[in-house]
Write a structure and sequence with these properties.
The structure is a homotrimer. Chain A has about 375 residues and is mainly beta. Chain A is built from 2 helices and 20 strands.
């Protein structure tokens, strides 16, 4: 082979199909909606709703020694009843792109990688952890507010370029990421410019630095995090700070996020949480919001046969009256996970209670108000 | 490995890609449409239309000994001319989800399986047979009416949970299925609640029981049926009864289907048919409809080289004037199939004649009236 | 096995996943748009836009000795800012079908193949070359005008049937293709008949004949062309003539394309170009347009380590005032490609300058006028 062609990696790894599914049965109660034009909020009948809460397939590969890629398609919320108490959109049977990025290793070690494509900016831990891996029934609601504030999209993905790396020395690890992205939701006229920064433009910058004491979370660098339960194999704590900044656009003069997150795994205990401050200025007026969650799970091995994890989570959001999402939104999750094959095969039963006021993901005071639900979940990752 | 982790099945089987294509060239004549606003039905010029009548790809796998899954994406009707005489929607190049389900075997034998996800409720045989496997050019029109009546969708799929199993003893086999599903098309206000049961909710229940005398259809349980031609290898008859029930929703107080189907394979003969009664009550008023088909094929092996099957089918629908689909709709199909590699590679030429009146899949009396067509088909299943 | 079943080819080749990605970072300047209703063209702020200019995945296989298929899904322009100077649509995260066809070899040699499905009609070389393989940053704009004129779609694909083949004898090769297709964009009333030929119908016929002197382009027949750079391995010239014809429809009485293209590879030089005349008649009035490009690249191997290709392209369009696209549209591309693993791994930096007037892809005089941009590209084909 000529010297100017780089050597491909093992052919077998070029294109590997991937698939995963998170099926839910959710029994909702107390959901309210506006059924008559200009009418009051009325109760929807309690109901069972089956759904593919999340289902994904795609491809990944490592065509060259220093080049890998991920492409993931989602068909989330298929079958979900709009009047169930589960948050999120409904789906009539369509597919969408979740991830599509290429990562290149710059250095011989794990200290510098460049990732380009359509990806999750590296912000809070909940935002960058795989959607069906968390130990609560669903991901914390706080991540949706962070993503919306950062780049205007519930899925949080944006096109851009991220530089990151990781270094472990003894009981101490450091991981950093910094990226520049498009925010395609800042046009004043979103009808005629639906996928655009608008007449004015500023880049979106996103950063995250994580310090670990004890066992590292990962031995190799990647921009996706797998789980917050290490099945009693990790004793360590990771504390991270994250932020995002964007300057002037059609709809704000600047927009910021600042926050931190913590993950502690010690013997049977899995404890994590995060808090973020969401700030925005327009025409000299600043609006502020805060959001976060705390979550605890405890691994129980019953009769050497069942790996169970009782788990509890509180999520919270509060925002100024002048902001995009106002008032309060709180969600409680209590339940048990049964892991049959670590994170790859899981059955869960959780109860979700929700409360709040204002205009946010819980209610807009006029057209909807979420109820509570009992949810059973099956997760299979292929 | 720890005792509490279940053992994965052969790695190779985790994610297997699948693909199939049914290409048609259809020469239509006699198609009519309303070309001018409030104008009469006028003849569209006779025309050739090429189309991917059905094209699917996806993944299937068996990650654990008792767990398997199927995920199928469809891109049906790509290239289809809206004014060809072929029924069904047109497609501008988009994809949709067809199937996405996980099946778990509960017992050590084939007697109990639970399937969850987005799947075809187990109702009439024509509804649960793979779309490109039947020996008529297209599936019977009756299945569309059954699916529409059952869960309001032409594709028939719904999110839910099905329990089923099969047992063979000597010359006798029994297969049963019973499921509970969401019907996401019963909101009074479908504009604001497009994917919802509406203010009121009732579960959709669907059942099917099949008895076989002689050779069984399948040795292992699954919710998809492959073909009604067994290529002279099966001598047996299967008779099934099926039904669906749903109680009060925004748009009806109850909705039912009752029906039966028969498949006879004896030497060279392939004979099948089904009949279903579709009933619905709203505010004390009942509406009734009936639909079904009968179809016969005869396998001919010519010069030990060509496996041909001349085939004939009649489908019929008749509905009350007060129902969703009214009047009569009849379709005749006569043609020949040439099987090059059993069901996996097939070339067919059929002539389709259609007639009817009222408001249904054949005509609405105002905007369209289907013509006849000569169709040539190529089927390749990978 | 019975004699009437044809023998499957190697099982391994049934379904092979494929994937490719073309990531761009484009810094735009001088882009203009109409921001206020009925307002003038105003400058959009200069901006960086990251995008998956093209990203594709799919499956291909060869289930039988004489039967192969290709299925490709695209998620192009993901992340693209509508106000960047890069042409083409934006994408909110959806997928679409690009190719879905089956090819059967009729003869024992390469002289006759039938391809059916959804495919690119075999017209100009730029139209039938893989989208991310050309040596300019993007494909020539001329191909978009040719595709639009031929079948009304920017992607150019249509459902139909193509017959083609190739024959090499010594230093001389001949390749031919002729196809019949649906044109689904000729209805007078595109709102009510969005995917239809309309009330009237004519088939679309497309032909191409190519003569090669010297080294052939391909040893085996296929309808997709890979690249115009053979990395110093080919000394040959290919000259092709192409045409398309369509008779009366709702929107024209006839429509034609006539053109030619040339590809010369000689030692380090890669030179190609094409020119096409686009004609249409309606109610006795004829409209005419012309479009084409010329492009030159020169392969440089630096220090036996870097395979570089400086490249320059001019594209041009001019059309009658009465036509679909009027006035002039010209684009200049100058840049350098760095090939790391032939066409499969490429990094490029190009500058694109655009100018024109009228109503076309460059401007409509009222709502948009394209600027210039500096683009960096990463191409990885798996």
């Amino acid at each position: 082979q000529e010297n100017y062609w780089i050597k491909p990696d093992s052919l077998f790894k070029f294109v590997q199909p991937t698939a995963s599914v998170q099926f839910w049965g959710a029994y909702s109660s107390g959901e309210k909606a506006q059924f008559a034009a200009n009418g009051p909020l009325e109760a929807a009948q309690d109901r069972m709703s089956f759904m593919l809460r999340r289902a994904r397939f795609g491809f990944k590969g490592k065509p060259y020694k220093r080049v890998s890629y991920v492409l993931t398609v989602q068909l989330d919320n298929l079958g979900k009843d709009k009047l169930s108490s589960v948050r999120g959109a409904t789906n009539t049977g369509t597919l969408g792109i979740l991830d599509a990025f290429v990562t290149t290793r710059v250095t011989n070690n794990e200290m510098a990688f460049i990732t380009v494509g359509y990806l999750q900016p590296q912000i809070s831990r909940e935002c960058i952890t795989g959607d069906i891996n968390v130990n609560s029934l669903d991901k914390s609601v706080s991540q949706t507010y962070i993503r919306q504030h950062m780049d205007g999209k519930n899925y949080g993905r944006a096109a851009g370029l991220n530089v990151g790396g990781t270094k472990t020395k003894g009981n101490f690890s450091l991981t950093y990421n910094a990226g520049i992205f498009n925010n395609m939701t800042t046009a004043a006229d979103t009808k005629n410019f639906p996928e655009s920064s608008g007449k004015n433009w500023s880049p979106l910058m996103v950063e995250r630095i994580a310090l670990t004491f004890g066992d590292p979370e990962k031995k190799t660098y990647s921009i996706n995090y797998e789980t917050n339960n290490f099945f009693n194999k990790r004793n360590g704590i990771t504390i991270a700070g994250f932020s995002s900044q964007q300057g002037g656009t059609d709809i704000f003069s600047n927009s910021h996020i600042n926050g931190f997150d913590v993950l502690l795994n010690f013997k049977n205990l899995n404890l994590d949480g995060e808090w973020a401050w969401l700030d925005r200025t327009k025409e000299g007026t600043s609006t502020h919001a805060q959001t976060g969650h705390i979550r605890a799970g405890y691994n129980l091995i019953v009769a050497d046969k069942y790996f169970l994890e009782p788990c509890f989570m509180i999520t919270d959001y509060s925002g100024d009256a002048a902001g995009q999402f106002t008032g309060r939104d709180r969600l409680y999750d209590a339940g048990v996970n049964w892991y049959l094959n670590q994170r790859n095969f899981k059955i869960s039963v959780h109860y979700i209670a929700q409360e709040g006021a204002g205009v946010n993901g819980y209610t807009d005071g006029v057209t909807f108000k979420k109820g509570n639900f009992l949810g059973a979940a099956l997760v299979v990752i292929m």
